[in-house]
Amino acid sequence: MPHTSHRMRRLMAPFPSWIPLLGAAVLLAELVIGIPMAVDGGSAPAPLSMPSPYPSVTAAPISPPTAEPSPTPARATATPSRSEVEVTRIPEGRVVTLRRYRGRGSAVIGRVTDPKTGLSFAELGSPWRRSRPIGDGPIKDGRYNLRQTLLTETYGPDDDREWWADIDSQHLWSDLDAGESLYDAARAMLDYKQGNAFPAGTKGRDIASQPVRRGWLIARMIQMPPSPDGRKARQELSVAIAVDTGRPRPAVLWITIPDTHRRLWPDVDTLVRSLKIVPRS
């Protein structure tokens, strides 16, 4: 058992002998009373909550994304449908002869022969440019074989826009909705031109529909809305002649001349009367 050191005995000497006994009794009482309190003395104190090193986050359920409907691809239509162009038509089968316009028109300086389409027709002189393959002309779209052009006006804020008169020979394009007859072929070409080569709001009125040798002619007066850019032309005489030349597809001669050069409208009659078919070689 442990012994009391000499130093401790010296420290305890001034106190009465019963003091240590009293301290022992107090200690014993604390032990006797404290043990039941720790065991049976009510609910234990609530443990201290330790702070979480990370904030608690409740993940919200993620709803699956709503699938948006994919756009339906628009079907490419090369030819405007009949409802897309505003035209007063002459019904198929009814014959209305193209009038002869007064005036001298342009001089004939030769013939244009297009072996690809099988068409041959008059070549007009000044103010028309010489007929040339389409690759050499002012407009290169790959559709035409031969073209004779006339610049009729320049306009716009910077005078950098142009309007042309044209005489074009080509096969009927395979992507045109041409129907079964040569009337339908001429109609399809005019509808395409009205819907793509003229400004929005253009209206058409067929003024002639007549047979020609192995073909059909439709003439249309094109009425254009006023131009915000200062274009002077308001009307245009457009003619399509579809001809069966014995090739897989009909040939089409397209003639269009604006009213600023109505003095050249007699050229249409010159071209129609000169039209011939080139035999296949």
Automatic annotation (TrEMBL):
<feature type="compositionally biased region" description="Pro residues">
    <location>
        <begin position="62"/>
        <end position="72"/>
    </location>
</feature>
<feature type="region of interest" description="Disordered">
    <location>
        <begin position="57"/>
        <end position="84"/>
    </location>
</feature>
<protein>
    <submittedName>
        <fullName>Uncharacterized protein</fullName>
    </submittedName>
</protein>
<feature type="compositionally biased region" description="Low complexity">
    <location>
        <begin position="73"/>
        <end position="82"/>
    </location>
</feature>
